[in-house]
C-alpha cells in the first residue's frame, strides 16, 4: 500500500487530466453490481468483460479485457475517455485516484499520517468508521490548486460500497453469470437489428 498510495492533505483538489494512466496496466475489478449496471446501460459492452482466476484474490474475478499490444489499455477506453462515464462506470473507477483506508489498517501497516492528513469519520449501518483518505501517487490530477476540493465523506462511502460489493462476488459463479448475461445480450441485440 505504502508504495502506491500517499496520504491526501486537507484542502487537496482534483481535476482529471484525461491522461488515461489509470486505465492502463493495472486490472480494474468489476463487481456483480457493476456487471449488471453495464448490462442494463449498454448490453453490447458486456462482451468487453472477462472472468479469470486472480492470484492476488485467490479466486475468480471479473475485469475488462486488456490489450497487451496497447499498454494493457482497458477495453472501455476510447480516445482517452471512458465510454462508461456517466452511465455505468465501475465502482472502483468512480472514486479513483482516491480511496478510504481504515484507521486500524493504517496502524497495522505502520504508516504515520501527517498532521494535515484528510481524516474522515462516517456512520454506516449504525457503526462509526474512522479512516484516512489516500490517493495514488502516480495520478497527475491531484494538486492543491486545481479542480474541486476532495470530498472525503463521498470517497469513504464509495470505498465502503465497493468493498462490500467485492465481498458479495466471493464464491459466486462469475463465469456462469457472465456467460448468461452475454447470451441474453446477444439475443437482445439480435432482436434490435
Ligand atoms: S491518472 Fe488521474 S488524471 Fe490521469 S486519467 Fe486517471 S484519474 Fe485522470
Ligand atoms: S472502466 Fe473506464 S475508468 Fe475504469 S479503467 Fe476502464 S476506461 Fe478507465
| Stretches with pLDDT under 50, minimum 5 residues | none
Element order, helices and strands? EEHEEEEEEHEHEEEEHH
Residue-averaged pLDDT: 93
- Strand fraction equals 25-35%
Question: What distance lies between the first and last C-alpha atoms, to the nearest angstrom?
Answer: 48 Å
Number of structural domains: 1
Helix percentage range? 25-40%
Q: Write out the distinct hetero groups bound to the structure.
A: iron/sulfur cluster
Radius of gyration: 18 Å
- Biggest beta sheet summary: 4 strands, antiparallel
SS summary, helix count: 5
What's the number of extended β-strand segments?
13
Overall structural class, as computed from helix and strand content, comes to alpha+beta
Q: Based on Cα principal axes, name the global outline.
A: globular
Give me the secondary-structure topology.
Layout: E1 5-7, E2 13-14, H1 32-41, E3 49-54, E4 59-64, E5 66-67, E6 73-74, E7 77-78, E8 81-82, H2 91-94, E9 98-102, H3 103-108, E10 119-124, E11 127-136, E12 142-143, E13 148-149, H4 152-169, H5 174-192
Antiparallel strand pairs: 1-11, 2-12, 2-13, 3-4, 5-6, 7-8, 9-11, 10-11
This protein binds iron/sulfur cluster (2 copies).
Residues 23, 28, 64, 74, 76-77, 82, 84, 89-90, 93 line the site of one iron/sulfur cluster (SF4).
Which keywords apply here?
193 residues; alpha+beta; 4-stranded antiparallel β-sheet; 3-stranded antiparallel β-sheet; 5 helices; globular; binds iron/sulfur cluster
Amino acid at each position: 500500500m505504502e508504495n502506491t498510495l500517499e496520504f491526501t492533505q486537507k484542502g487537496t483538489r482534483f481535476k482529471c487530466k484525461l491522461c488515461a494512466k489509470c486505465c492502463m496496466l493495472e486490472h480494474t475489478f468489476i463487481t456483480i453490481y457493476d456487471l449488471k449496471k453495464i448490462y442494463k446501460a449498454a448490453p453490447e459492452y458486456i462482451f468487453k468483460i472477462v472472468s479469470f482466476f486472480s492470484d492476488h484474490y485467490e479466486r475468480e474475478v471479473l475485469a475488462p479485457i486488456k490489450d497487451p499490444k496497447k499498454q494493457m489499455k482497458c477495453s472501455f477506453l476510447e480516445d482517452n475517455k471512458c465510454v462508461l462515464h456517466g452511465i455505468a462506470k465501475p465502482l472502483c473507477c468512480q472514486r479513483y485516484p482516491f480511496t478510504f483506508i481504515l484507521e486500524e489498517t493504517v496502524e497495522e501497516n505502520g504508516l504515520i499520517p501527517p498532521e494535515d492528513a484528510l481524516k474522515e469519520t462516517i456512520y454506516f449501518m449504525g457503526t462509526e468508521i474512522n479512516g484516512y483518505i489516500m490517493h495514488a501517487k502516480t495520478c497527475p490530477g491531484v494538486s492543491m490548486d486545481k479542480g474541486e476540493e476532495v470530498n472525503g465523506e463521498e470517497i469513504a462511502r464509495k470505498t465502503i460500497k465497493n468493498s462490500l460489493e467485492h465481498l458479495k462476488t466471493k464464491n459466486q459463479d462469475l463465469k456462469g453469470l457472465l456467460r448468461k448475461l452475454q447470451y441474453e445480450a446477444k439475443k437482445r441485440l439480435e432482436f434490435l437489428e
